[in-house]
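Final report, results section. Input specification for complex C-07:
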Amino acid sequence: MIAFMALVCWTLALLSHGLLQSKIQRLLLIGNTHATALRVVRLVLPLAALVLCMRLTQPLGLMIWLGMFSLGGLLAGGVLTVASVRARKPRAEA
Amino acid sequence: MTRGPRKAAAKGALWKRWLVRGAWIVGFAYFCTLGLFFLAAGRPDAMVFQSIGLAVMPLLIVVLFALPRGGAGLVVLAVPLLQAGVL
Amino acid sequence: MRDILRNRMGWLHAWVGFVCGVILVVVFTGGSLAMFDTEITRWMQPELSGLSQLTLTEEGLNRAGEQVQALRDAGQTVFLNMPSARDPVLRILHYDGHAFVGPALNPRDGSDLNVRQTQGGQLFFDLHQSLYRGPVWGNMVTELVAIGLLVAVFSGIVIHFRNLVPDLLLFRPFAAPGRAWLDAHLMAGVLMLPFIIMITYTGAVIHAPRLFPMISNGYGGKAANRPGHDRAHGIAPSAPLGPMWKQAEAVYGEGNIGFIRFEPRAVSFYRSDAANFVITRDHVDFSPRDGQQIAVKPGERGVQSLGGVMRGLHYARWGTSGLRWLYFICGAVGSAMMSAGLVLFVIKHRRNHGGTVRLAVAEAFTLTVTFGLPFAALGFLWSNRLIAPSLAQRDLLEAKVFFLLWLCTLVHAAVRSCTGHVRAGWREQAWGIAVLGCGLPVLDVVSRSGTAFAPRLDVYGVVDACALGFGLLAVWGQSMIARSR
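Structure output:
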């Protein structure tokens, strides 16, 4: 359960990180809205995941925290890629 | 700006230069790590030095490759002195 | 080309990355599979599928001890592997040069379960640690490429330093092929960076004695503790093992005995590697004559246990199955990242060296390690069920099938590359993976008909599901290759 929560935290934090990048904003055809909220999410959620993982025995907790960064990043990257492909389709059809 | 065959020759020369440089750097890094292991041998914390040596060896290769010729020469001189000083 | 930092690092990253990467893809793929070596071995011994959860008894252990003694009298060097959550049977094992093999016994009464001979998942472990080339030269090559990977990682970080964080999640599959592969390489590389550095560094440290022989008394001290290497058979154990086992469990806790090693003057009960994060190989010694406890021998402590920490981190035998899955996924993604790097190298050099033999060789190796290896691995699993269970030396035959299939993919890739149809080669090998992967669950059900329909999620179901998953992934992959420009 802790690992799953850590994964959710990392995925949301990295999604926020992605949405703050200008290249990804251009691909998704979105502006730089809610930047402050996204920055807060990007900062707070990894720390929340770390606090959760510290409840596990060590070094398992630390390894789960780092591992969930990798998996969360893959998930967030996958979501942003699908979104950018979908955002591109109407332009390509036009 | 070089063109045509001269460009290819220049590129080939650069490639060979880098290859030779790479071989020297890898050899130097290996012998530095080897030296560190010899100096640390017999110490109770030898294993710590061995672990550090294995982490530093690839870093040393990258740093020596990144530095221009003069800087790399300085590092080549500094690393053995540093080893002798620390141990 | 100007002699600037970025170019120097680019040259270093590209060439060290490609030369080492061809081997590293094999090492990472083999290592990912080796995370589940015990489970793969169980899948490859379907005779065990009908066993319900068995508990070890003193009677079973005593019977096993008698069989060990008979084998030692015949001159064999063996040890006894205790049942665990991952592998619920007793095993009398010996090292055949590549894997620990031997009969499996019922832990309740010590009777032989008559499982088929196989190297099982240990083939992948040997492939991972020594490329199946033995503990000297094979280990030395893997040690060299591990250091090469660290060099490639550090130089890659220097090259992309400014864009690492902003482009962390940037992947544009619709961009030009070179750009799309670079995005995939960078994204996977940066996201897996903690795992890749940890696993490569600990691996390099574990096998450091191969490159630096003078430190063999440090990390290499493990060799002396490795089971199955004692050559002396002077005094055979006559005392029953059951009472010794109870005493050893009193020292290390219930279920924490990993294996029993038999030496001329002692029977040693080793604490399981799964019992603690640091692999220390603590053991309790008993007299083989009367079963009296001789000594409790703790492993290294303090700074001296650093080698055990490295091995604990690398092997993750202490971890839960969740952690093993994490290692497996990270290893597989790491392998895919390196394959993307190999493809990038080939794409880059195709502009200037298209049609040359050198490029064809590079393309052939890239295809062979990326798709050929999983194809051969699936073929290895197929051969396990197709070769007769009672055939003599069938374990070696299975390994030969694996390497023969892999060689076939190399020949196929070379032919396709040399004739300029490398894209078709990629699709054909992907189809090969798809056919073998999707067909494996069917083969498992047919060849394990007695127990295949039991509704439970065991190693058989999970291996079948993974093979099916990789098969479907290959179908999708080949369709993407067909659609790409």
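Residues 2-93 of chain A form one domain. The two ends of chain A are 46 Å apart (CA to CA). This concludes the modelling results for the funded period.
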